[in-house]
Amino acid sequence: SHMLLHTPPARWSKFNPEYVKAGKVDDNLHSPLGEPLGTRLPFPCGRAKGPSGATLKAGQSVKWSLYGGATHNGGHCEISLSYDDKTFVSIQTILGNCMKDGKLDYEVTIPANAPSGPATFAWTWINWSGNREYYMNCADVDIEGNPNGVLTGPKIVEANMPGRPTIPEFQGPNTGAQL
């Protein structure tokens, strides 16, 4: 299989007890959202919102991890937050070195200005080598944050899906820095 957001547990994931209990586990979550040949799962997130799988506190560092066996030599990962599943604000970028050398465990700081309320914690990945694909898993979370907070920042990179740019393999002089 490819890769999947393990912690916090992705929507419809076998790692989210709420989906297991409801019998709504999707074994295709490790598939790309889109590719030049057509979309496999819809953008964004691949699946609709569901029950919260974690509570995250603004200003604090949280662990996130991946699961799977096909890292495609790593690549470009972003962690983002969204409160509407339309606008995804990037809060962490790992350019080129995501999953390099088998690393699957990371940390990210939830911005101190993140508003309180239900949110989406999203992981996106553009693979280093192989077919030009775009992966995205989303975890439904509750943010304990600033009641008057406003989350701002860069939007996530969207690529390798119909209607979006194709990012070539990160080989030779192409390190992905143009992202």
Automatic annotation (TrEMBL):
Put simply, this protein is called: Putative endoglucanase
Organism, as annotated: Conidiobolus coronatus (strain ATCC 28846 / CBS 209.66 / NRRL 28638)
The organism's taxonomy opens as:
Eukaryota, Fungi, Fungi incertae sedis, Zoopagomycota, Entomophthoromycotina
